[in-house]
Amino acid sequence: MTLDRNDPEGSIAEAAKAYSNWGRWGEDDVLGTLNFLDAAKRREGATLIRRGVSFSLAQRFDMDGPQKGWRRRTNPVHTMLDTGTDAALGNQGFPHGIGGADDVISMPLQCSTQWDGLGHIFDHGVAWNGRPAEKVVTSDGDLVTGIEHMAPYVAGRGVLLDVGRTIGTDGELPDGFAVTGEHLTATTTAQGVSVGRGDIVLVRTGQLARVRRNGWGDYAGGAAPGLSFTSAGWLHGTEMAAIATDTWGFEVRPNEFEHAFQPLHQVAIPHMGLLIGEMWDLEGLAKDCAADGVYEFWLTAAPLPITGAVGSPVNPIAVK
């Protein structure tokens, strides 16, 4: 794909037409590319468990997260409703000495490790599968493609593409580095791993490792390595089920067009129906993969079945 940095509208329209999956799974579809992840693919993924070692790919959900209030995205607020102090003082009102603790959390659904649902992004007022955005997501939530529909299905063969180690310097890509389809293919070749239909692909840039050393800075919304707009064809052609990165916004920032905001999202979600994950912690998994040379594994990453949600926190678990 050619990229005219002064014409985001034209480039987005061209890519949307070329890589659309509208109607591919029927007019009532609510799963998008998760349709590629079928029972056979899950059975294949389950055979990848050899050592039984597991990795949580979630960042922490606490007040020390990266959010700075962009579009009212804040870090989680965790509040205790009952505590050990209450139990010790005997003021909980329970019989025979039993006590307990309870808590509540308040947070945007996309403040830490998360999935973008199909109702998260629109293109000129049109949602996934060509539906009018105003009929899909209202003040009552996503009435059609709420992320609860995906909850049973996000489990199968995971593949780590450690682009940071393969292409970068000292295991990391610099902010503003655009990861193209050619970079992704080079990484699969270097790692001796394939990416194909129904896979859940994880792309490590190394940015999360860097901000952990240096502080969050502008991790949330600032400059970052990420997927190039030109990678849309690669994403579509692989027939992957989902993809996630260790960055805040999945695609390269600043974006590759003048006066644009997240143009790859505008193609990938409403037109491809691609499930996108962001802010995943791939460091422990990547270290293990580099040590044993195995970059495929069983991965389960179910969103919370929050009715009508357009995104969801997730604690992905990779097992090798």
Automatic annotation (TrEMBL):
Classification via Pfam families:
Cyclase
Where does the source fall among the domains of life?
Answer: Bacteria
Q: Which SUPFAM superfamilies match?
A: Putative cyclase (SSF102198)
Q: Where are the transmembrane segments?
A: none
Q: Which Gene3D superfamilies match?
A: Putative cyclase
- Name used for this protein in its record: Cyclase family protein
Name the source organism.
Streptomyces ortus
Q: Organism classification, top ranks?
A: Bacteria, Bacillati, Actinomycetota, Actinomycetes, Kitasatosporales
